[in-house]
Amino acid sequence: MRRGATRPEEPGTLPDAELGGKGAGLATLERLGLPVPAWFVVPASACDRVLGRARPEIEVALASLPKGAERGAYEAAAARAGAAIRAAGLDPADAARLAADLERVLPGEALVAVRSSALREDGATDSFAGQLDSFLGVPRAAVEARVLDAIASLHGARALRYRSARGLPGAAARTAVIVQRIVRARCAGVLFTADPASGDAGAAVVVAGLGLGEGVVAGRVATDTFRAELATGRVRRQAVATKATRAVLATAGGTRDEPVPPAEAAAPALTDEEVARLVEAGRAVASAEGAPQDVEWALDGDGRPWLLQARPITALAQGRETTALAQGPETTALAQGREHVFDDANIVEGYPGLTLPLTFSVIRPAYEVTFREAARALGVPDDVLRRERAVFAHLVALVDGRVVYDLLGWYRLYQLVPGFEGLLAAFEQALGLPRREIARAAPPRGLALLLRRLVQARVALRLGRLLATHGLASRRFLARLAAERARHARLELRRLDAHDLLDEVEGLAGRLNGPYAVTALNDLFTFQLHALAARLLARFVPGGDGRALRDALLSGIGGVESLEPARSLAALAALARDAPAVLALLESAAPPADAWAALAAEPSARAWRAAAAAHLARFGDRIPGELKLETPPLWERPDLLVVLVRHALAAPPSRPSGAAGDAARSARAAADAALRGRPLRRALLRLVLARCRDGLRRREALRLARARMLGMARGAYRALGALLAREGLLDAADDVFWLGADEVSGLVRGHALDPDPRPAVAARKEAWRRFAARRPAHRVVTHGIVMARPFPEEPAAGGGGDAVLRGTGCCPGVARGPARVVTDAFAAAPARGEVLVAPSTDPGWIFLMASAAALVSERGNPLSHTAIVGRELGVPTVVGVEGAAALLHDGEPLEVDGAAGTVQRLRP
Hints:
Strands 17-24-23-19-20-21-22-18 form an 8-stranded mixed sheet. The chain has a 6-stranded antiparallel sheet with strand order 8-7-6-5-11-12. Strands 1-4-2-3 form a 4-stranded antiparallel sheet. Helices cover 46% and strands 14% of the residues. By secondary structure, it is an alpha+beta fold.
């Protein structure tokens, strides 16, 4: 029985069996306090009385349907049943109640909606969507006739065929009928609280068309599609159509389509704020019902949202259900298969584009070891680590040749440490992930609560000790790495045999991957301090934007190792300016290889060549794609150094200077003014910012450390490839990168399952050629066997005509300049005062960033390497701009606001 109404005749007091599926949904929406247009119900019992009088004729009509009947037979049966229902009419008492309710609930409404509400309609398994009839723009005098038409549609041709196809009983079918006020909608549409295409339970999809929702549901009008985060309502991507017509009420009743003025036709049907309000309402319904919902809505002329209907999504991700993120393995295996959520998030910075098999086979166990040791340091017991091995073993995956996070493992990782569930929001923000609701156990009570508090206190003490000693631990790791690099440099890899080379790469992994857990702990602390700094600033500085102030105060922190290669290149450029012959060669149009050869023969270039050799020795691993083993190191392609120095010659003399600019000085002034006379607040904020700056410096230093670790492995594997090719096992030395690490080991040590790897190499090259032509979705949700179905592709970027693109601002300041869209850093000319636009960047792009007026990236977040480097350069930076590289064009004038996170397209 539904509660919440005081009048016995009101729908909220009737049981669901009287309301029908649609009516029960409306009652739920009202119970949640959500806006629903005024309505009442002709209950199912009243409709039963009509059907009872018409039953003999209905049964004859249904009996006339042969098995496998054609469309004409269904239409004939429906016509006979419908005529009987209309002839039977409403019971006089029910007709009187209908007239009274119409006057009581909808007084003065000239036109109303009459909508069917079958008992199984809008159910979790059988939606009956579109199978029964509803009517808009019904004059008051015609309401009773349209109610009978709605009852008759229970045995209409569409409904009969639907029930037959699904094996549902026909004679026992029941319906109620809803009579409701019509919202004279400016726009209307449908909201899904999970992505029905991918099954992503953290996404909301809003489809919107102009005018009444009938045009959207019937497919008569063009619609815009907005994809947003379910937890926040933030729009992540939109596709805006040109909307030529809209459905409106006709004066005499019914609806008609009218043309839309051109200016309105091209504009988005909804603002970001309106999308967020709709998603908030949908989230409330989904939370109350415990399942993703399909919600019909309308916005009136004042922009107020109204909910017209809600039902469970009956077909999600190709008919497969979804589960809540972060549930344990024992609870996520549904009949449809266990869920996986893959997302490239900020990992695309490290592994942009395609990654070859050897690299992935090396980094997957490295992630496992590193994060298992980090969990051990946080106090996770060994028995839990053993039991949860699968969590650590599957933190990353390979989707169509691209490295992605296997997100459920990361959420589960946070849940292994008591009390860490509350840290997930900062983790998501740092990785650029949409907010997700996670499954939580019922809160403990009594003794269980006390024990949990004790465990949390122990974890807090351990965290305090780790934070206090983390700087020292990081320095010790970097010293260990330096010693390993010095030892490795003394090796003559080309003189080692294959077994020694394997011993070398495996020994490096064994000695460094575990201790590299310092980077996981550093990220943990830095993510939380970064989020805390924004919260404190929002609280301490009235009227200030906490995030923008934080990003400004973290600009120009100094000591960021990512800038050291750029400073070295700047020094090489300065040396070249003092040597006319060297400068002439570098500024010539000669190809890089020819220029390098000429520099090697130029007598006056001796000092420059010595400095270049020092740069190669120190920063030979700092290149675009530096974390991929297949990327040649700079010392093997020294001609590319010519490209880098040419970029340095184009960079403004003030870069890289670490200057934060006017925005940083303004932020410091605002914070100082707000904290004047508040010494405790000032001390707390300074401590948090200082710790955060230390964490950011270490984050960049440890990222370069990882590049150097993989650089040593790269050298050993390249030597191994040469040996395998010499022995005839591979056609070329570089083919080693198409094998997995276990396959290479098997060939050398004799446990290979296939002694001839060349067919596998050829097959993988062909597969990667196909992958190169695809653009996998940034987020992919699967159920069951992951590789059993093709991965979906990313939809084409919408909003091509939008004047403003939005992302996340990371470095304050405003810059103007023409766009330079770059997908290959080495192939790009210097960005002299241009806005660098890219799908993603990595620290190896520093030589290109240093000459840019602003940075715009499709992927990233405030703690990504792009953002950190942008802040150090003092370059306005906006990341997370969906589809930027596809939507923007070379030479297009742009204005980038690094605080607001906007990229405005200017008129030429």
